[in-house]
Amino acid sequence: MKFTRGWLLDHLETDHALDEILDALPMLGLEVESIDDPAKRLAAFTIAEVMSAEQHPDADRLRVCMVNTGSGDPVQVVCGAPNARAGMKGVFAPAGSYVPGIDLVLKAGNIRGQDSNGMLCSEREMMISDEHDGIIELAADAPVGESFAAYVGLDDPVIEIAITPNRADCLGVRGVARDLAAAGYGTLKPVDTSAHEGSFESPLRWSIDLDGAEHLAPLVTGIAFHGVKNGPSPDWMARRLEAIGQRPISALVDITNYVMFDLGRPLHAFDIAKIEGDSLFIRQAKGGEQFHALNEKTYDLDAGMLVIGDDHGVDDLAGVMGGERTGISDSTNEMFMEIAVFDPISIATTGRKLNLNSDARYRFERGLDSESPHWAAGHVARLVLEICGGEASMPVTAGPGVDWQRSIFLSSNKVESLSGMIIDAAEQQHILEALGFTVSAADGGVNVEPPTWRGDIDGAADLVEEIARIRGFDHLPMAHLPRGDVVAKPSLSPAQARLFRLRRALAGRGLMEAVTFSFLSEDDAARFDGGAENLKLVNPISADLSVMRPSILPNLLAATVRNQDRGEADAAMFEVGPVFLGDAPEDQRTAATGIRHGNMAPREWHGSGRQIDVFDARADAEAALAALGVKLGAVQVQSGGAGWFHPGRRGQLVQGRTVLASFGEIHPEIADAYGLRGRIAGFEIHIDDVPMPKSKGPARALLSLSVYQPVTRDFAFIVDSGVTAGDLLKAVKSGAGPLLTDMQLFDLYEGANIGDGKKSVAVSITLTPTKATLTEEEIEKISAEIVKIAGKNCGATLRG
Amino acid sequence: MQDLDRLKSELVASIEAADTLEALEALRVSVLGKKGRVSLMMRELGGMAPEERKTAGQALNLVKDAVAAAIDIRNAALSSAALDARLAAEAIDVSLPVRPETEARLHPLSRTIEEVVAIFAEMGFSVAEGPDIESDYYNFTALNIPEEHPARQEHDTFYLSPDSDGRRKVLRTHTSPVQIRTMEAAEPPIRIIVPGRTYRSDHDATHSPMFHQCEGLVIGDGIHMGHLKGCLIDFCRAFFGVDDLPVRFRPSYFPFTEPSAEVDIGCTRDGGGLKIGMGDDWLEILGSGMVNPRVLANCGYDPEKYQGFAFGMGIERIAMLKYGIPDLRTFYDSDLRWMRHYGFLPFDAPSVHAGLAGGGV
Question: B193, A491: Cβ pair inside 8 Å?
Answer without folding.
Answer: yes
